[in-house]
Amino acid sequence: MNKPVLSQERTKYLKKKKRRKQMIRFCQIAVLVIFIAQWEITARLGWIDSFILSQPSRIWQTFLNMAQNDLFLHMGVTVYETLVGFLLGVVFGTLLAIALWWSSFASKVSEPYLVVLNSLPKIALGPVIIVIVGAGTRAIIFMALAISLIVTVLEMLNGFRHTDNEYIRMAATFGANKRQIFTKVVFPYNISTLFNSLKINIGLSLVGVIAGEFLVSKAGLGYLIVYGGQVFKLDLVMASVIILSVVAAVMYEAVALLEKLVLNWYGH
Predict the structure, then answer these.
(1) Residues 6+ apart with CB under 8 A from 55
(2) Closest residue by Cα to residue 118 from 152, 87, 89
(3) Hey, what's the torsion of the CAs at 15, 17, 19, 25, to 10 degrees?
(4) Contacts of 182 (CB under 8 A, 6+ apart)
(5) Taking the CB of residue 137, how many other CB atoms lie within 10 A of it?
(6) Fewest CB within 10 A of the end CB: N or C in the chain?
């Protein structure tokens, strides 16, 4: 199959776009390298307190020590708790949003309660959650679920309500019932909304898990951070925080990749 011939203007535009993308990536890496170098130099010169703020070389050494012990166990625990809480929050939140879209009466009744629950700092409910579901993994997953559930409901319900009425009227004109309108028009129209919600919730679920691990856990990155603070091993705290950042970035990129695949499949 012959490749399409591009005009000179188009080729020039694509090259410019590629150069811009490469320049952005280069600047992002340069900012990180300069930050790490400044951190290391100022710590070695004694301009900052390396006991409190640590320094990259000590963090790297701590990371190597952790890798030879239980690092991957702690990472696995945090990732498992996050994914379970995230999936439960998305599934139950989406189902609840569908139910509220279906019944405008129930939606109106629940609206003020959803607003209040969304404003409520769920971490404050930690002791209550522990009493209800018990101390351990279930309490941590429940914390992640509590944080992501209401956000999913509000995001998806708002998206369902703002579906283009022209599409809905056209489907109704062809005799589609409410279930068909939802499955053929409303839900596909809000695929982007769903993934926006997923991108927000993966971070919120991780926040819920770390908060839960602060309160009650024997493993996980949150546990390592608390333990490091209690025994004044601040290198361990900083190393755990950096690992946590990497885990959060990987999860976010996984959701973004899934979004790209699904949107291509739906032809958005």
Answers:
(1) 39, 40, 43, 44
(2) 152
(3) -150
(4) 98, 101, 102
(5) 21
(6) N
Q: How far apart are CA 54 and CA 77, in angstroms?
A: 26
pTM here is 0.80
Where residue 159 falls among pLDDT bands split at 50, 70, 90? Answer: very high
**C-alpha dihedral (191, 196, 201, 206), degrees to nearest 10:** 120
With a cut of 80, say whether residue 3 has pLDDT above it: no
The amino acid at residue 243 is I
**Taken in order 147, 148, 149, 151, is the CA torsion positive or negative?**
positive
- Is the CB of residue 205 less than 8 Å from the CB of residue 89? yes
Contact predicate 64/236, CB 8 Å: no
Distance of alpha carbon 185 from alpha carbon 171, whole angstroms: 8
How far is the CA of 103 from the CAs of 66, 137, 167, in angstroms?
A: 52, 35, 20
Please check whether residue 161 is in contact with residue 237, taking contact to mean a CB–CB distance below 8 angstroms.
Answer: no
Give the separation between CA 146 and CA 123, rounded to whole angstroms. 9
Length of the chain measured in residues:
268
Q: Which residues contact 238 (CB under 8 A, 6 or more apart)?
A: 53, 54, 59, 62
Distance CA 55, CA 37 (A): 10
Q: Which pair of structure tokens corresponds to residue 81?
A: 């708790």
